[in-house]
Amino acid sequence: MADGKIERAAAPRAVPGLAPEVKGILLALLAMGFFGAMDALSKTLVQHYPAPLILWLRHLVAVPLVLAVLAPKRPLRLVRTRRPLLQLARVTLLTVEMTLVVMIFRTMPLADAHAILAATPLVVTALSVPLLGERVGWRRW
């Protein structure tokens, strides 16, 4: 208080940042860039090495990174499951799928392979009706 006047505290300024939607879009674009780079590297390597070796090395790097990020937050939830056989089936199917994709890169151009793989959501939606008995609305199609 100087000269009988009350000084006002400066209003806190909002730190300029990105909206959550913009952050999400940028992270999605970054992830797609990394996936594309990983696929391009896999395509290069599969010309000289077998696909299982490439996937083994890929997971040798990825698993410790994922564990380093997730383990401090949820250490026990990472290894606990109520359905171990279902998890084993999921891991097996994912491994077969990834091996086939890397093997596809040996014979097809990368852009063609990505164009075919982009149809995955449509195939999953179509198969969810007969295999899982789900109802798919017109908006999903």
Question: What is the helix/strand order?
Answer: HHHHH
With helices defined by DSSP (H or I, 4 residues minimum), what is the helix count?
A: 5
N/C terminus separation = 67 Å
| Mean pLDDT across all amino acids | 85
Proportion of strand residues: under 5%
What is the 3D form?
Answer: globular
Q: What is the share of helical residues?
A: 55-70%
User: Got a strand count?
Assistant: 0
What Rg, in angstroms, do the CA atoms define? Answer: 24 Å
Biggest sheet, in brief?
none
Structural class category:
mainly alpha
Poorly predicted regions: 11-15
How is the secondary structure organized here?
Layout: H1 20-46, H2 51-70, H3 84-107, H4 110-117, H5 120-132
Helix pairs in contact: 1-3, 2-3
Considering the chains and any ligands shown, give keywords for the structure:
141 residues, mainly alpha
Describe the structure.
With 141 residues, the protein is an all-alpha fold. Helix content is 65%, strand content 0%. It has 5 helices and no strands. The longest helix has 27 residues, at 20-46. It is globular and about 45 Å long. The protein starts with 19 loop residues before the first helix and ends in a 9-residue tail after the last helix. Residues 11-15 have low confidence and may be disordered.
Quick recap:
This protein is mostly helical and 141 residues long.
